[in-house]
């Protein structure tokens, strides 16, 4: 039985911080198994949050400098984590997603900062990164990446929902797996909570006190993105340029905006489940379940609204899976890259063919 020891690193669009998952994977005769050996979330310093949030508006030299300097920061963070936990000798490699700044697959481009070369040399570990570019070059969305993990690591759930900065869903259909971004997520909810001088709406307590505004809900649901067929993907830029201006138009309380946003997310997710059943000609079974992960899974009010509207039973797993499922999936995608096996699926991304994503940077200190 072949085993792999990997650090998976994920930094999402909501800029909550760096998710680090130290995982062990085993390839058996019956499939793949995994376990989380240790995990942590490292908060980004405020200066990095500000720089990354505003980078899309900066010039080329600032972008390139940020790519390198952020890579140094990530590499140093990894190095501290490895040394603190004394795991350098047992680790095979690091899988690093990078921080997405530009994502415009319709223009054949996607870009994440956090130079793999800088991460490798600062951490002293081999690094696999830049998972999306090959898929985008093949005409795909380059996202979402998590469904490859859903397929092999969470086969018991028909649907998997990630409530991150943007909400995305995957579904195992009759003969394939599909996945795509459904709607807004924590980027909007956190931004609204910030107006109340809160980092986020803990448990959805503020949203619970608000009332759904029917006019705002109708306008949010009318976005052009929701009329597009999947495969499709969203970026933080879409949220800030399209959805946030809609919210600003309405002179209602922040609590009402939070309540309406949660209702919007819940209804969009339920609607997309029904679309998938219909379009993929999948039989609906009473045993069908949807696994919910990502930071939004701790928003109990949001999960209640999703469960109320969902046509399938919702399941919130243990905290470590809620927090680190994306990092686990990324680590697994890195393993497939080392095996030269497909880790991006055309049924998910819409690319012309299944493909292998990821660039390997070897460290002068340790080779894979």
Question: What does the model show?
Answer:
By secondary structure, the protein is of the alpha/beta class. Helices cover 41% and strands 22% of the residues. It has 13 helices and 13 strands. The protein has helices at 46-54, 60-85, 116-123, 133-137, 147-153, 186-194, 205-209, 214-221, 236-249, 254-279, 300-309, 319-338, 346-349; strands at residues 2-11, 18-28, 31-42, 93-96, 99-104, 109-113, 127-129, 159-163, 166-172, 177-184, 289-293, 313-315, 359-361. The strands form three sheets. Strands 3-2-1-4-7-13 form a six-stranded mixed sheet. A hairpin with a 4-residue loop joins strand 9 (166-172) and strand 10 (177-184). Helix 2 runs parallel beside helix 3. The longest helix is centred in the N-terminal third of the chain and has 26 residues, at 60-85. The chain starts with a strand and ends in a 7-residue tail after the last strand. The mean pLDDT is 95.
């Amino acid at each position: 039985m072949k085993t792999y020891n990997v650090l998976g690193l994920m930094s999402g669009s909501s800029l909550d911080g760096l998710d680090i998952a130290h995982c062990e994977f085993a390839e058996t005769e019956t499939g793949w198994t995994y376990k989380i050996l240790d995990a942590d979330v490292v908060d980004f310093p405020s200066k990095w949050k500000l720089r990354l949030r505003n980078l899309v508006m900066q010039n080329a030299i600032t972008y390139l400098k940020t790519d390198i300097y952020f890579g140094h920061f990530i590499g140093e963070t990894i190095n501290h984590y490895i040394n603190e936990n004394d795991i350098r000798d047992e680790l095979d490699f690091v899988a690093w997603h990078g921080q997405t700044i530009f994502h415009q697959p319709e223009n054949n481009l996607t870009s994440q900062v956090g130079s793999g070369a800088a991460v490798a040399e600062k951490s002293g570990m081999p690094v696999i990164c830049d998972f999306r570019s090959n898929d985008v070059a093949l005409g795909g969305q380059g996202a979402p990446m998590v469904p490859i993990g859903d397929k092999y690591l969470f086969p018991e759930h028909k649907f998997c929902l990630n409530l991150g900065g943007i909400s995305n869903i995957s579904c195992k259909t009759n003969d394939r797996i599909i996945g795509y971004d459904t709607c807004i997520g924590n980027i909007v909810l956190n931004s609204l909570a910030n107006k109340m001088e809160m980092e986020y709406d803990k448990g959805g307590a503020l949203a619970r006190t608000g009332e759904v505004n029917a006019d705002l809900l109708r306008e949010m649901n009318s976005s052009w993105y929701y009329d597009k067929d999947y495969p499709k993907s969203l970026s933080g830029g879409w949220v800030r340029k399209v959805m946030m201006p809609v919210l600003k138009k309405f002179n209602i309380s922040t609590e009402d905006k939070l309540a309406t946003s949660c209702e919007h997310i819940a209804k969009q997710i339920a609607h997309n489940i029904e679309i998938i059943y219909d379009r993929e000609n999948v039989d609906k079974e009473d045993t069908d379940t949807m696994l919910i992960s990502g930071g939004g899974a701790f928003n109990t009010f949001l999960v209640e609204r999703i469960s109320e509207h969902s046509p399938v039973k919702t399941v919130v797993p243990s905290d470590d899976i809620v927090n680190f499922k994306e990092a686990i999936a990324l680590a697994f995608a890195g393993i497939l890259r080392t095996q030269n096996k497909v880790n991006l699926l055309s049924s998910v991304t819409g690319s012309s063919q299944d493909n292998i994503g990821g660039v390997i940077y070897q460290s002068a200190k340790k080779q894979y």
